[in-house]
Amino acid sequence: MPHPYASTIPGLLSLLEQLRTSFPASITADTLKKWGIASNNEGPIISVIRFLGLIDKENNKVTENSKAFVQHDDGDFQKLFEPIVKNAYKELFELNQEKAWTLDRNKLIGYFRQSDNTSARVGLQQAITFEALAAFSGKREPLAEKAKSQEKGAQKIKDPKVKKTSDGKAPAQPALPFVPVQPAAGLHGPEKSTPFSMSVRIEISLPVTTDQAVYDKIFKSIKENLMNG
């Protein structure tokens, strides 16, 4: 029998979690629909739990293997779920012993492709399905946690921490050198170039007075010191 695979890993894990809460006497596609699990992908997930021996060909609960799902403690559950996975993937464990739990994904893909004569895409899905089951058995890092750790590692590379000085402050950044801007040639014609000009605006607040002599003195001072200076 070819190794089945889940087309949605979150859907598979959601079903396994649901079975730990309540394991009905029969599990069908309609059961998953009522639970709102793996919409339109019920068939592949049913195939996986049947492959694990949790349900029989008629989709009825297999009492012996369902005992694991009444264990409330995660550790106790994993101890009973582990042999269920090992028995389903018996040949893989015969070839690799306990190392099968943590085999590199490429090696898993190679194994499934050779065993079932499948395509690269199917082999990948078979490998990811096994990885998810191994993680649910407590034998492998969950896929979501692995993705988070890889993301954190990438973040450290992208955003290195700035070393602080002894007083706890970030070191001052060196000032950029001043580079004078040269006027562009040909600003005022094809053959002429002139330096930049600068204009200064001066505002003068005049006092409120009716004495004309005051204003005369002010404008005289402006003419002598600013306009003719």
Task: Report a brief summary of the structure.
The chain has helices at 9-21, 29-35, 42-51, 63-66, 74-88, 90-96, 105-116, 120-136, 143-158, 212-227. It has 229 residues and is mainly alpha-helical.
What does this structure look like?
This protein is mainly alpha-helical. The protein has a domain at about 10-155. The chain is built from 10 helices and no strands. It has helices at about 10-20, 30-35, 40-50, 65, 75-90, 90-95, 105-115, 120-135, 145-160, 210-225. Helix 7 packs across helix 8. The chain is rod-shaped. Residues about 145-155 and about 185-190 have low confidence and may be disordered.
Keywords:
229 residues; mainly alpha
Mean pLDDT: 80
Number of strands: 0
Describe the biggest sheet?
none
The rough form would be described as: rod-shaped
- Please write the string of helix (H) and strand (E) elements: HHHHHHHHHH
Low-confidence parts lasting 5 or more residues at pLDDT below 50? Answer: 145-157, 184-189
Portion of residues in beta strands equals under 5%
Report helical residue fraction: 40-55%
Q: How does the helix and strand content classify structurally?
A: mainly alpha
Distinct helical segment count: 10
In angstroms, what is the radius of gyration?
39 Å
The rounded distance between the terminal residues' Cα atoms is 103 Å
Provide the fold topology.
Blueprint lengths: L8 H13 L7 H7 L6 H10 L11 H4 L7 H15 L1 H7 L8 H12 L3 H17 L6 H16 L53 H16 L2
